[in-house]
Specification:
mainly alpha; 6 strands; two-stranded antiparallel sheet; 23 helices; 747 residues; two-stranded parallel ribbon
């Protein structure tokens, strides 16, 4: 009871949702029940993704792929879904929420863009990209905003409720700031399908990435100015807006770099638990995005910088399986996000009909101003940067850059964030933004590929650089850096070399686990396979090959071999028909099993030891297919003919094997030889002992030449009637070993 003596009211709280709809005493136990409300949201999204994936599979095998971009097909699917939603009874409030877009759908796309960004072309063109991204976006925003304000002041927008439609200057600048930026999602979707050259793609795509900082700053600045009011602005507000350009852009880069180095340092300690390696790439990069968003910095710049910074170090620390999983997962998440974004664009176009206000004059003038000022900005900026570029931007590239300024989901989401209490013309801006996005996606996206083919714009060939190209590129970089140093001008080449030196000396030591190990494991794997294949071909061709000298390996007898392989045969016990190879033991230290070295490093060293000296694949015994053999045979035939014409005597070793020289030439008629003075050719004449050092090795009788451990196969086999040349070896008997030369057939 309360103080007045009355009964105290008892408030019964309402049970939560999961405590409702319980069975009553008169209900029976159902075998199954349908609860769509519980799974409606994730089931709807999953069904849309499934249907869009089926549509993409069908689109990939259809002839429409040559004419229509995939993004346009996804928008059309969204339009169909939006029509179905409108025809369904009940609430049709299905739209692309701005928070859902910026916090969940955009980060995977930007992560993929930064992770697979070609670093060297991006760094080489960074100054040009900054020119188009910063100066170009400011130029477009200023010119479009002023032109639309002039149209509004001229009274050309019509009337509403018998009053002329007026749009203030700050509202025009707010709209121009969100509509003037090129969308990176749309650029990726369109330009990756037309395969333009790498420089053109880097310029357009880099501009779309970096102008996010300018777009976000302008949008937030003018939105804040609208909240304050045009009459209440002071000078400090203008200065703060100017400084926010540097704070937002550079702040996003710094946050992304910090998280990138954190991801690289963390990946150094994941060698004992490989299964969690891909987690650090996704979680840390996403945390960098959220941190920048929380601090009102450029979140796109943050996650792109994080991906670019951590990539070279993470790839060195990760295993090959983890690296493949990470790359495939990044591309998969990016593809899913693009699918959802373009579908929601189509759905929101029809379902958010209550946010639409159509103004024909404003829409048409916006499209005209966008094209005119985009073309003018690309023209004067290209002319300016060509004065300082070694590789100039051509007129065709200028046209494609101006025509490829596609707007997309970022402009759509920013226009949806406009509040009616702050921006009175928000519905006009929302409708105009949708028209601009659809026009640029469909009209420009569909026609840009035929225009590229018509203008014969240079396209990018997807080929991996060869080893010679990589070596030349590095030598060229060093040469350019040296020239800059000599001229006393520290350009980008000199700065790149200083960064490489700093990276190799400090950062790799800190961020890479085994920074001294041999890089590029795939090269070692390929070399090992080639070595094994060469050895297998050699053994299949010649039967076997045996080490020489002290490299004959002693193998103890085992029960399986019954002592047959107790010892490898020595050099002298090997037949001369079997090719012999000198295997030199390399001076490489093999770490024992209990060493602190990682097992991966020991395996790479073992691969190098096994593959350092390998048997060369010799020609098969059939010499008819050997170009070298045919050439030497023809030369010896011509030489023998000249000797017979001049009456020179046949060398002694040729006379001994004369029956070999005419073996198989029974169709020749043997002519009687004339008696001519016996003259020996210069290479067969007696020479004094002082000139002994100039004789060929097989003519040395007193001085034994160096040991010949590997003879060409055509000098060792007895097939096809080869002539014999005697050679003396220091490790064999005094009668020498048999060299073979090709037979000398008469003409």
């Amino acid at each position: 009871m309360d103080a007045s003596g009355g009964d105290q009211a008892v408030i019964t709280p309402e049970p939560p949702a999961y405590c409702q709809n319980h069975l009553g005493p008169n209900d029976t136990l159902p075998l199954a029940k349908l609860d769509w409300e519980k799974v409606s949201v994730p089931a709807t999204i999953g069904l849309w993704i499934f249907l869009s994936s089926i549509a993409r599979i069908g689109f990939s095998v259809s002839p429409l792929k040559k004419y229509i971009p995939e993004s346009c097909v996804l928008i059309c699917i969204g339009l169909v879904i939006g029509m179905v939603v409108l025809l369904m009874p009940g609430d049709s409030d299905v739209k692309l929420e701005s928070d859902m877009f910026f916090l969940f759908l955009l980060p995977p796309i930007m992560l993929e863009a930064g992770y697979f960004m070609p670093m060297k072309p991006f760094i080489n063109n960074l100054s040009t990209i900054l020119m188009f991204a910063v100066v170009g976006t400011l130029f477009n925003a200023a010119t479009i905003g002023l032109s639309l304000y002039a149209v509004s002041e001229a009274g050309w927008l019509g009337y509403q409720d018998d009053k002329p439609i007026r749009i203030s200057l700050l509202e025009c600048f707010t709209f121009s700031s969100l509509i003037s930026a090129v969308d990176p999602v749309a650029v990726i979707a369109v330009f990756e399908e037309i395969h333009v050259n790498q420089v053109l793609f880097i310029l357009v795509f880099g501009e779309s990435l970096l102008n996010d900082a300018v777009t976000v700053v302008l949008y937030r600045m003018f939105e804040a100015f609208n909240e304050i009011g045009q009459d209440n602005l002071v000078a400090w507000d203008i200065y703060a807006g100017f400084l926010s350009f540097f704070i937002v852009g550079l702040g996003g880069v710094i946050v992304g770099a910090m998280f990138g180095f954190l991801a690289a340092f963390t990946s150094r300690f994941t060698n004992h638990i490989r299964v969690i390696e891909p987690v650090f790439v996704f979680i840390i990069s996403y945390l960098s995005y959220l941190m920048a968003e929380m601090m009102s910095l450029s979140s796109i710049m943050s996650i792109v910088t994080c991906a670019m910074v951590m990539k070279p170090y993470v790839e060195e620390n990760f295993s090959s399986r983890s690296l493949t999983t990470t790359q495939n997962a990044i591309k998969m998440l990016s593809s899913i996000s693009e699918t959802i974004i373009f579908i929601f664009l189509g759905v929101s176009t029809l379902t958010e009909h209550y946010n639409h206000t159509w103004n024909t004059v404003f829409v048409l003038y916006t499209l005209v101003f966008i094209f005119i000022y985009r073309a003018a900005g690309c023209l004067w900026q290209s002319v300016l940067v060509n004065r300082f570029r070694m590789k100039r931007i051509t007129n065709k590239d200028m046209f494609i850059m101006s025509y490829g300024g596609i707007r997309g989901a970022i402009a759509f989401s920013l226009s949806a964030l406009l509040c009616a209490n702050i921006v009175a013309a928000n519905k006009i801006f929302f409708t105009t933004t949708i028209v601009v996005v659809m026009f640029t996606m469909f009209v420009q996206g569909i026609t840009i590929k035929p225009i590229v083919n018509l203008l014969a714009v240079k396209k990018h060939e997807h080929t991996e650089p060869t080893m010679n190209e990589e070596i030349f590129s590095r030598v060229n970089d060093h040469a350019l850096a040296g020239m800059e140093l000599i001229l006393g001008r520290e350009g980008q080449n000199h700065l790149r070399q200083r960064w490489i030196h700093f990276n190799n000396k400090y950062l790799k030591l800190l961020l890479i686990r085994d920074h001294k190990k041999v890089r590029h494991q795939q090269i070692l794997d390929v070399y090992q396979r080639l070595t094994e294949q060469a050895a297998a071909d050699y053994i299949e061709m010649h039967g076997a090959f045996h080490p020489t000298g002290s490299n004959a390996i002693k193998q103890p007898a085992t029960d399986e071999t019954d002592g047959l392989n107790e010892f490898k045969p020595s050099v002298n016990s090997v037949s001369s028909d079997v090719p012999r190879i000198s295997v030199v033991e390399p001076d490489v230290e093999i770490q024992p099993v209990g060493s602190r070295k990682s097992q991966e490093a020991r395996r790479q060293k073992n691969i190098l030891v096994k593959s350092m000296f390998r048997p060369s694949v010799s020609e098969p015994p059939r010499r008819k297919e050997s170009l070298m053999y045919r050439s030497m045979k023809i030369q010896l035939q011509h030489k023998l003919q000249r000797q017979r014409r001049t009456g020179a005597a046949v060398p002694h070793h040729r006379q001994q094997s004369g029956h070999h020289a005419h073996h198989g030439d029974h169709h020749h008629t043997k002519q009687p030889e004339k008696e001519v003075p016996q003259m020996s050719p210069p290479w067969a004449q007696e020479k004094p002992q002082s000139e002994l050092t100039s004789l060929p090795p097989w003519r040395h009788q007193d001085v034994k030449p160096a040991k010949v451990t590997a003879l060409p196969p055509w000098l060792q086999h007895d097939e096809d009637g080869y002539a014999t040349v005697i050679a003396i070896s220091s490790s064999e008997s005094d009668d020498g070993s048999s060299y073979r030369r090709p037979p000398c057939h008469s003409a």
